[in-house]
Amino acid sequence: IFAAAMGAMSGGINSLTSATVIDIYQRILRPGAQSRQVIRAARITTVFWGITATGIALFAGRLGELANLFNKASSFLGGVILGVFLVGMLNARSAGRDTLLGAAGGIASVVALATLTHVSWLFYGPVGCGVTYIGAWISSRARPGANVVDPELLMRWKHPVSGNILSGRIK
């Protein structure tokens, strides 16, 4: 069990180090750094993230049920993000403005659901996704001359029963 935990922690620290060194050190701080300098920065960054992760782990017990806290927090935006993705993949008429309006409605609906009702946080995702998609769909139909995306760019899939190829384009 200890080895598995160390392996998972090692992967997380490695990912954080790679992102920090490549995105911050090589692109912003030292764009022309040599390999030796990059390796040194990676080692220092690995120690930094290791100490940071250890510190967080030491205080995680005081935060309560960390998994539930994370799930509750991510449920506020997770459904809205899925709705934005679905609008981009399935709706040929929605432009950026329509998607943003739908996302704003999705966030507002999730906040209202969380503050005004006693509904479980498990429903925030589906509500946010649905309101985002429907809001973008309505907004795209409310304005004349809406942009229509090339149907070749939209997702296609095979219907599970009939076997027909379906396009994601919604007319």
Strand order of the largest sheet: 1-2
Q: Strand share of the residues?
A: under 5%
Approximate shape:
extended
Rg over alpha carbons: 22 Å
Distance between the termini: 53 Å
Order of helices and strands: HHHHHEE
Number of helices: 5
- Main sheet attributes: strand count, strand direction, barrel closure: 2 strands, antiparallel
Descriptive report:
The chain has 5 helices and 2 strands, in the order H-H-H-H-H-E-E. A two-stranded antiparallel ribbon has the order 1-2. Helix 1 crosses helix 2, helix 3 packs parallel to helix 5 and helix 4 packs antiparallel against helix 5 (124-142). By secondary structure, it is mostly helical.
Topology of helices and strands:
Layout (H helix, E strand, L loop, with lengths): L1 H28 L5 H25 L6 H25 L5 H21 L7 H19 L13 E3 L6 E3 L4
Antiparallel strand pairs: 1-2
What key phrases describe this protein's structure?
2 strands; 4% strand; 69% helix; 171 residues; mainly alpha; two-stranded antiparallel ribbon; extended
Describe the structure in brief.
The protein is 69% helix and 4% strand. It is mainly alpha-helical.
